[in-house]
Amino acid sequence: MRGPISKSLLFIVLLLTTQISIAAQVWQKPSGNYKFDCGRPGGSLILYATSDPKSFNPIVAKETSTTQITSYLFEGLTRVDPRTLKVIPNLAKSWQNQDGRRWIFHLRKDVYWSDGHKFTAGDVTFTFNNIIYNPKIPTGTRDIFTIEGKKIKIKAVDDYTVEFILPSVFSPFLRALSQDILPRHKYLSLVSKDKFTFSMGLDSKPEDIVGTGPFRLKKYLAGERVVLERNPYYWKKDACGNNFPYLDEIIFIILPNPETALLKFLEGELDYYSLRPQDLAILGPRKNKDFTIYNAGIAFGSNFLVFNENPAINPRTKKHYVEPYKLRWFRDKRFRKAVSFAVNRRKIIEIVMNGLGVPQYSPLSPANTLFYSDNVIKYLYDPAKAKDILYSLGFRDADSDGVLEDKHGNKLEINLFTNANSPERITIAVLIKEDLGSLGFKVNFMPLDFNNLVTKLTATFDWEAVIIGLTGGIEPYFGKNVWSYKGDLHAWNPTKKALDDYELKIDDIFNKSAKTLDMAKRKELFNEWQYIVSDNLPFIYTVQGYSIYAVRNRFGNLFPTVYGGAFSEIERVYVLDKAKK
User: Fold this and answer.
1) Is residue 12 part of a domain?
2) Fewer Cβ atoms within 10 A, N terminus or C terminus of the chain?
3) Could you give the angle at the alpha carbon of 394 between the alpha carbons of 390 and 395, nearest 5°?
4) Could you give phi then psi for residue 465, rounded to 5 degrees?
């Protein structure tokens, strides 16, 4: 009796403390006329990363461990204002379009690369024609800029004017042009020699990583830190005429264990910490705090369970990537529905998130107010229904050992992976293992290093089930590399061939959405997509948490948002002097 009572009381105390902390500490979004200060130069910002980047190449990156760093180094022609979520000029200062197909972009003339070379239209055409559309370079970006199988024609009109001729109307075009641009003078020779894919690696010299972003690479120490320094050639200026960025350095400390990150934040060694709900019980009540907790709302990202439906044969081993009898299970959507009904999402929210989360059934988050639909199939926890489905598929425990067998006598045993640097996902995996175990599954759970996990998903394909997530965003079409069966991140089926009719339907929806300018009609298309995903369950969604940040009270111009994070306009962030603390 004592153990369960203590655990229940502890949970109640944690939950109440968490709720009180959020009520007291919640960040209220500044009004639309929020204005930034003219800051002061100097100082550093110490952040943390949960794993080493896989490279510094933004074109071939498939994981947040890389893009978390490269987002500070590279820029696109446009960008999204984190305050309004509208598309605004960036490297391009203005544009015109005719009939939604012919676009003329006028580039800024005051932009320099981080090595001092001038930025010109040739860099834009190089990025698209030589890199993104290069079939020898593996990049999911190509999916976004391929409209019904056709490329966009891109040419330089002069040094500061670029013409884009689209094969058809492409509604998310302006958002898509936040795509990172790379310098022709630096990487053309590598592309010509077919060496670009493996360039910009972790062994690169800092001077080999060249962008137009506010920072550039200064140092990388494997397993320890990534240091970025102020880009002295950065083109943006504040309202007082001072050059951005204000900060001299951003230091990412590699901390795979969030408990270690929390400890270092408490000890003052980090300026920022991304809170898990349980952390609020520790950080919320602290007296004499030198930090503020910001709750920006439900996050854009997702957590899901995915089964490997790859029917191909491994050319190296000459064996199927997935045992044929397991493939029959995974490819049957009734099996996936049984699993979804077996997942106790409310329990996950209570145990993993201290009640601060919501069940997820759609590929989009409620944070995406433009496209989210609640009209999807919701798999409320129903183990009896899950059992009935499995029984209808022929699963029985013929030998009474607690593990089901299919009608051919094969044990219902699966190997489940997730990334070892995420205690939340590990706990979710353990809870799902328990849920499935109660139905007669034997689940072998193995946490893996994140980059190894990504390699399994995108290269070696030697996995059966994975719990992972996606960061999400505003424009659903930008997830085409995940949702099109031709996409590089179509995790459950990387064959580039549609295995089911619903994959063809989703591909058609994404293609139609790209040619539809009417926002209401685009919303209808993506509503249909969300319903199809909830019915066929290529991803079995679990829960969504909140975006909660703790930041030291020594920085000015903070504007935390769900979309942009705690430092949504990093070039404006500055260190306060003592008089302003």
Assistant:
1) no
2) N
3) 60
4) -145, 140
